[in-house]
Amino acid sequence: MGDGWSHAGAAPFMTTTLASAPQRLDSRVRRATADDRSAVVELWTDAFGIPTEAIAPIYDAMVADPHGPMSAWLLENDGEAVSTATTGRVGDAVTLWCMATPERFGRRGFARALLADTMARAASDGAEVGLLGATPGGKPLHDATGWTTLEDWEIYTNGDSAQYH
Fold first, then answer.
1. Nearest to 90 by CA among 105, 68, 111, 63
2. H-assigned helices in the chain
3. Of 52-56, 118-122, 135-139, which has the strongest mean pLDDT?
4. Phi-psi region of 153 (alpha: psi -120 to 50; beta: other; left: phi over 0)
5. Domains of the chain (ranges plus CATH)?
6. What is the pLDDT of residue 44?
7. pTM here?
């Protein structure tokens, strides 16, 4: 690694079988579209501390194909975007990435509801296993909902991180 990179911590790589994972559809959750760009990017920016200009192109690429393997999900409470997650499908596995619930919306069950909804949708679409990389803030939720750690991934950063200090 070049100059400026430093060890930031470890991230557990986790798994669950969807048959044993909490699943519940939630009417507040829907698949995000190009029209939701500002809401999802704001949630990512608030939760991860990454500048909008770094995140927005990722979102644009993800929603370019509304039927592709990657999806952004948005949970709205009383019309306000409060939590988002990204899923991908590979074979019988669903991957969960960029789950973001900014601190100001935390401790209200939004992330738990979003997780249960996205796992229910994945299971109904034929997925059997879930995979994710957890942040320190998200790991307690994943532990509480039956996810197990397969291994820890060492994280390095060349800038500030809202997750790893």
1. 68
2. 37-48, 52-63, 110-124, 139-144
3. 118-122
4. beta
5. 6-153 (3.40.630.30)
6. 93
7. 0.89
